[in-house]
Amino acid sequence: MALPEWDGELTSVRYDRGTGAWFVIGVHSTRLGPASGGTRAMVYPSPDDAVADARRLAGAMTLKMAVAGLPMGGGKSVIALPAPRAELDDATWRRILEIHAANLELLGGNYTTGPDVGTCSADMDVLAGLTPHVFGRSVAAGGPGSSGPMTALGVFAAIRAGVAEAGFDGVDGLRVLVQGLGAVGADVARLAADAGAKLIVTDVDPARCAAAADELGAEVVDTGAVTTRECDVLVPCATGGLITAEVAATVPAAVVAGAANNLLADPYAAEVLRRRGIVHAPDFVANAGGAIHLVGREVLGWSADAVADRTRAIGDTLTGVFADARTHGTSTVTAAQDLAARTLTGEH
Ligand code: HCI
User: Fold this and answer.
1) N or C, which terminus of the chain has less Cβ within 10 Å?
2) What is the 37 CA–ligand 1 centroid distance (Å)?
């Protein structure tokens, strides 16, 4: 395997012959506290891709925690599955969680996991029976439950801040295109519809689109149209990598603000968006509501109301990031990275 340079602290990689799964944990930084970030379980083209994804996602978690003011470092787990999760039998999935829990135990609390793409609160309940280094158990099991609603609330605050920065007078009447109607995207769509947006939606699952059309009056478009359909606000809530430099140069939106981690396929895309005057809410700022929920409830002892208040404050953080970017003539990603760096180096 090629070993490109990485600025993180540790990567653990394990292959299990019995299940055919690869287990990767990227511990990017423990500078502000124990590393933390979810467990992503999906099929990858190769184990190298899984390692690269875990490292990139772990790095984003470090920035997310720093900007959100949470006393945690950044990490992420990736389980590269031998087949899509829906095709795995229960015993195989259980065995996969057992091996993951054993890896978490080996890291001894320097990394705590939680749910991410491909895992849910019920999986955290299983892990929590095997290791204490788990956030996000179900409410029934004594945990704080899904982080989806708080992630969505924070993304909606980011949309509002982005819309204001772009010179619009609120979300009412704007064309808001939501890509991905999973736990987060479906909630964001609901919040946008309640605020009077003209909703446009797309998802790989036609049933989810039909539900959004029914319940929210959304217009449904083809998944392929997401970067070419004209809209005011593009809200990516599927997996990352949507915005390549080429897409950044052509996407017909005024604001880009969503939940997907690692939205930019190419860091240069942020600069392309800036030059086109497109307001871009960096993913690691906009989608921090989930981390605020888990760390707020489980580490800091915050009430649900306090978590919601801190999550809504993502809008104010972004307003500051947009102003910094304008002042210094940088992309919003650079401005948000600088904000994180000031916390990480102890400068305020
Ligand atoms: C994320 O924001 O991508 C994951 C949130 C999270 C935060 C802390 C532990 C697990 C997951």
Assistant:
1) C
2) 4
